[in-house]
Input
Amino acid sequence: MDFTFSDSELRFQDDVKNFLRKHLPSDYSDKSFIGDITQEQKLEIASSLRKLLSERNWLTLAWPEKYGGIDAGYIKQMLYREVTAYESMPVGSTMGVDWVGPAIMLFGDEEQKAKYLPLISNGTDQWCTLYSEPGSGSDLASLQTRAVRDGDEWVINGSKIWTSGGHTSNMGWLAARTDPNAAKHRGISTFVVDMNTPGIEVRPLVNMVNEHNFNEVFFEDVRIPDSNLVGEENRGWYQVATALDYERSGVATYAEGKRNLERLVNVTKEDVGILKQNPASRYELADRWVELQVGYNVAYRIPFLQAAGQTPNHEASISKLYGSELTQRIAQTGLKLLGMEAQVTSGSPHAKLGGAIAKTYLSSVSATIAAGTSEVQRNIIAQRGLGMPRG
Output
């Protein structure tokens, strides 16, 4: 497959870079990396940027014009993601743009499209996905949150966990069990939920590096109208699977990995003694760089398939699997490169890269769990890509 970009695509890539030079502080990425920018500051910057991006219709580049996009195509959308991820641009949640919006286009009715898509494309609504549960992570189809029809309403009870951005989102995309007697994949439906609906409680989950991104979400007799059901009742699993394929197709992981690897290389240039103490790290850095180039080619394949009218499936799982494990290898290389100095935290005069290496390593642990574990990805690749039977 030829991944050569057209002149139009390359000009657009330059436009995005120029936009960031104008509207994002030049040191933002490095400050964000070492933790010199608070979560509140990030949210404020993200809100401001979303307004500017929506004016250009860049939030929904690949969407049709009638839904607020500009029909720019998946390749330009990928280039946008690559550039903005490399610069660590904050825009808040992208779940509405990347997963919910496309799912509503595919499965929603005309009223739902008219109601929700414009508010996603102009950056007004922020979305979270309400999938995982305390007992249903990798085996998502075993979820137990119930939605019971009551006249022209649905009553929802249950809980979700690891909900990214649940505390900053005003809208949720919910998977709930609507037929407990059906096979587990066939008794699930998807709903749109206003996160301010009475009966919804969001509780923070702070991770080991003291960051708050994940949440628990509890539903107690939450009532939503029947019009919030998206698509056919009890066919929600297939909609969720489609949305997850969109989630796994991004190039952002490799762009972030490239920036972090460049930071490590720059440290060795500033302190030549590092490589003298650990000469094998030179080859490990080179290995990570080669792996990044492989990763880019894996990720580039996804938008080219989408541009050809295909829905990535096992190809997206390859990208997700390779990218998440590479994220961990880059973090591990950083620890080996800096040795004991990698454990020095910010504020110390001896801290390399602002003391962010240990934090990066700890944060990388979840990469092979979030959005589908590596084991799940390997099963998808084996069954759907290689045609192997279920084990």
User: Anything to note?
Assistant: Residues 127-233 form a domain with the Butyryl-CoA Dehydrogenase, subunit A; domain 2 fold (CATH 2.40.110.10). The chain has 13 helices and eight strands. The mean pLDDT is 91.
